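Weekly sync, protein design subgroup
Attendees: M.S., D.O., the rotation student, P.L. (late)

Item 1: inverse folding check
M.S. brought a backbone from last month's batch and wanted to see whether the design step gives back something sensible before we order anything. D.O. pointed out we never logged the input encoding, so this time it goes straight into the notes. Structure tokens as presented (104 positions):
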């Protein structure tokens, strides 16, 4: 995705996943009643944060799927897409993929 936004510092731009559209029993949930998604795909990351004069790079990278704090971040609309700008501290976990699971 070509984007006009570049995150600064320890910020991360995430494309939220879709909220659940149906319950386990098959009941359709209207958009107004859906839970805010807490999972999304990282689109861009800032350079990192400074600690004691040293640049500490972020632990996530573009393409990662992350779980983030329910009410963390700032919602923005870019090119008709809803995106979220999060601080790295609002990211709770990164989902393992087949590639990342094999590295251990």
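Designed sequence read out in the meeting:
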């Amino acid at each position: 995705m070509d984007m006009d936004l570049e995150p600064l510092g320890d910020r991360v731009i995430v494309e939220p996943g879709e909220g659940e559209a149906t319950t386990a029993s098959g009941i359709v949930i209207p958009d107004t009643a859906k839970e805010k998604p807490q999972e999304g795909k990282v689109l861009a990351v800032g350079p990192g944060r400074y600690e004691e004069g040293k640049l500490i790079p972020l632990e996530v990278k573009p393409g990662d799927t992350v779980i983030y704090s329910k009410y963390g971040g700032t919602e923005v609309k870019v090119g008709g897409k809803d995106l979220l700008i999060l601080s790295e501290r609002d990211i709770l976990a990164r989902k393992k993929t087949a590639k990342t699971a094999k590295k251990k």
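Discussion: The chain has one domain: 1-18+33-95. The mean pLDDT is 84.
Action: P.L. to compare against the previous round before Friday.
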